[in-house]
């Protein structure tokens, strides 16, 4: 069990939804931590190379001097170390845990990548395909929400849980996708349950505090694309 | 591809033992495919836990209604059906589920949160980096294959490093004295390395370059439960040769070959190229 003297540091980057996940979990558990903004895209920072040499990505949670990498691994780590303090992040029932893990993995492997592809698409055809994939995913997630929440406000029930955090952290990017491509993904006429859940999630104090403004994310995205294009054109 | 005869039924597993926690033979059913390393992960885990289960072989070119209903999102094996709760899919999710549902039976994950995080990290590495790199070797030839082999070596180097001076220094298995989740995940893909070496003539695991990894793999493969789970090498070789021939005869370009391999892999098995289970 972590003592109050064990320092917690988070290697972070302000636009990253993966970083926000870790922040939300730490706040829910009432764990104070040091937030360190990292240079990720042009010249990766020293700390990043030291604590995540394999992937060189954020977030990295450093606890008792040891690094924990990857947002979903960090969420589980926080849940296990600070078990019994604040709400549980994963459900307690084994089958419900499996369901939460399954959908979190689906968001990360399928839904989020197809959604961001909408912004990256070079042709109208590519864009349409990405939109279709994203909407198919949202159909599945709308159903999953109904089953998991059982009429309660969050995937996790009364309280925000693992899947809420994983999926909810992507909402600021859903707004960014809308701004850039004109496509509203979580449309309340198509996905009424998800739209209502998204509003509830976004209204949570810590989420409001962490979520970057859409305009800033749009600007960030354009800069990032410029960097990527510069890198590939040099090959 | 020639249809292969179905495997013999798995040997009777020891009845679930301790702490009154067990599953009757009809509570657990595994839908799988004999050549799928993801299926082997779950079979091995069930054996290590001493859990009885029913096994149903899926013809991936003609998927059963049970598979399509229980895994509508991905329509892949393995699927663990645990009556009366329902289906658990995705091999890593299933392995975690087995620990959650049967905590008193030989844990697959370590108990310490940091060690658990490490095991999970390297499991993801196996699925996101090493697996696809090995699949790329199998699906390509010529220069593209050389590049793919180099990538596999880069990945193996990282693991070798962890065994030599990193997180797993001095351990017999990644799980410690006994096999754990990371051994299962890495081990149930690694038998393909020897098979692919034979079939593609690419050198993947040089015992001189990766002595600790090589020693670990041999030790893993010698475990009783592992020997019980991994199919005979001749069957794997025959299967891989057939698949490789199909890939190479479909096209002459490396990129198209990779695409053909991915399609072949996706429809016929969860071989290393397909990393989403």
UniProtKB/TrEMBL annotation, chain A:
Q: Which is a Gene Ontology cellular component entry for this protein?
A: cytoplasm
CDD domains (alphabetical): GST_C_Tau, GST_N_Tau
Q: Which Pfam families match?
A: GST_C (PF00043), GST_N (PF02798)
Which GO molecular function annotations are given, in alphabetical order?
glutathione transferase activity
Q: Which residues form the GST N-terminal domain?
A: 6-86
The record lists the catalysed reaction(s) as: RX + glutathione = an S-substituted glutathione + a halide anion + H(+)
According to the entry, every stretch annotated as the GST C-terminal domain falls at 93-224
Domain of life of the organism encoding this protein: Eukaryota
Entry keyword Transferase? yes
An example GO biological process term is: toxin catabolic process
| Top EC category | transferase
Enzyme nomenclature, EC number: 2.5.1.18
For this UniProt record, give its keywords in alphabetical order, as a comma-separated list: Transferase
The similarity comment for this entry is:
Belongs to the GST superfamily. Tau family.
- Listed name of the protein: glutathione transferase
Automatic annotation (TrEMBL), chain B:
Identify the keywords attached in UniProt to this record, alphabetized.
Transferase
Which GO terms of the molecular function aspect are on file? glutathione transferase activity
* UniProt-listed Enzyme Commission number(s): 2.5.1.18
Origin: domain of life: Eukaryota
Which residues does the UniProt record annotate as the domain GST C-terminal? 112-243
What is the uppermost EC class here? transferase
| Stored CDD domains | GST_C_Tau, GST_N_Tau
List, alphabetically, the Pfam families matched: GST_C (PF00043), GST_N (PF02798)
Q: Which GO terms describe its biological process?
A: glutathione metabolic process; toxin catabolic process
User: Would I find Heme among this entry's keywords?
Assistant: no
Domain GST N-terminal, chain residue ranges per copy:
26-106
Catalytic activity reads: RX + glutathione = an S-substituted glutathione + a halide anion + H(+)
Recorded hits in InterPro entries, A to Z, give:
Glutathione-S-Trfase_C-like, Glutathione-S-Trfase_C_sf, Glutathione_S-Trfase, Glutathione_S-Trfase_N, GST_C, GST_C_Tau, Omega/Tau-like, Thioredoxin-like_sf
Question: For this UniProt entry, what's an example GO CC term?
Answer: cytoplasm
UniProt family annotation: Belongs to the GST superfamily.
Spell out the protein name for this chain. Answer: glutathione transferase
Species the sequence originates in? Ananas comosus (Pineapple)
